[in-house]
Write a structure and sequence with these properties.
The protein is of the alpha+beta class. The chain contains four helices and six strands, in the order H-H-H-H-E-E-E-E-E-E. Strand 4 and strand 5 form a beta hairpin. It starts with a helix and ends in an 8-residue tail after the last strand.
């Protein structure tokens, strides 16, 4: 009976590992595409609000970059990749966030997210990249 149980457990483990290998086969490709998503987002954020109104060429360029970013994010969603974008003031979670620096004199309670540097991403339930954040060092009292 013990040998049969061991064989069944082994079969189940191999099957689970095979399913995971298939499900997460594109992990490396997805990680490399995150840099492209970040660059598209930075490009859109770097243009001042009044510049597109002054120049039609810039307006058209921004529309194309925005469309590319939307298409990439839509593709991510269709394939089980989701952006992790915590709210400011949310408690720091070392399992999902990576602290890059501390923010002095923040309006947020100590130990909470005061600034988001880069959003994180998860592939199905696996964390691909943590959210890079600035954590409040001192500031408002934590609601309790």
């Amino acid at each position: 009976m013990r040998v049969l149980a061991d064989q069944e457990n082994f079969r189940r483990r191999v099957e689970r590992e095979r399913e995971d290998a298939i499900r997460f086969a594109a992990t490396q490709l997805v990680k490399e595409l995150l840099q492209t998503a970040d660059n598209l987002s930075r490009a859109l954020q770097s243009v001042s609000a009044d510049l597109p109104a002054q120049n039609e060429t810039i307006r058209n360029l921004l529309a194309g970059v925005a469309a590319s970013e939307r298409a990439l994010q839509d593709t991510f969603v269709r394939h089980g990749i989701r952006r992790i974008q915590p709210a400011l003031g949310e408690p720091f979670d070392p399992n999902r966030h990576q602290a890059m620096f501390e923010v002095e004199g923040s309006e947020w309670p100590a130990g909470t997210i005061a600034q988001i540097v880069l959003p994180g991403y998860a592939y199905h339930e696996r964390l691909l990249r943590p959210v890079f954040v600035g954590v409040a060092k001192s500031g408002a009292e934590r609601p309790g």
